[in-house]
Design a protein that fits this description.
This is CPBP family intramembrane metalloprotease. This protein has one domain. The protein is built from nine helices and no strands. Helix 4 crosses helix 8.
Amino acid sequence: MPNHPAAQEPPTRPADAPWENWPPKQLDLTTSPKPGPTPAPSGSPYHVQGRNGRATRRDWWGELLLVVGLIVVTVLGVYVIGMILAAALHAGPAAADSDQVFSSPLADMALQLAALAAAIPAVLVGVRRFGRRPAGTVSSVTGGLRWSWLLRCVLVALPVMIVQFGLLLVWTGDEDGAMSSGQGFPGWPMLLLSLVVLWTLIPFQAAAEEYVFRGWLPQLTGRVTRSPWPGVVLASLLFALAHGFGEPTGFALLFYSAMWWGWLVIRTGGLEAVIALHTANNALAIGLAAALGELADDSTAADAPWQALVLEVVFTPLYCLTMARLADRHALASRTP
């Protein structure tokens, strides 16, 4: 038989030299993204921005407790800082039983506004931590304040509030000494200083109240109910109670306007329109108090007379319906893009 050469094994491939595998291949991390804030699905209205599929029932309670706790801590913290400054500068009130921190009504009013403004970061931190969504979704459905829309809102809100305040002053006049309870005109230098300080703080104070009562609370409630109205009603009631117990007409005014404002936020998909109106209202009210020397007066909107309620019944829906119409005209997003 013929002799055949034995089959030879194929030569093994030599091991790659170390430099042949350089640079090393990058790992594909797209299949396991790092957890982060998740917005609500496209088409979600404002009040259900918390329904992003990430937050659990435990997160709901965590967000509630964290936001409330942070609001209390930040507000008290601002007041503690104010008391330390008042003591260090010997600027406290002369009376030991006074409710004021500073003897100056201007400084005391500025402290109150700054304390309320501190609620904004409390809301944003709570939403981001336990809501597991972008904090900007409290501002609007687009994930942040829409600045051009906010400017349009200011241009409408300011003249509306000027007319409303003007009619109220003409209607009430000097009734019950309402216009003569203060110390009178403080002089131009003091008035200008007051306006600069207070008008700088008022937008943040007004925005903070809107972030809490028209933003966070309805969205927190919207995680357990599909309808926006339970959250709007609850937030409106708490908003009225937060201003204290005054006249029944004042409570009705606050609750009525808050209900309209809550509707407007849902309708326009953001807080811009109500921030503008709230800021204009407070700027005029506090500016008038500064001009009349009434900054030390502790009355609030809860003490509003019946004439103010009548005007509110007319002007609040007028503004809200106007802004809703403008939102349609400018194709403003009212749902998550």
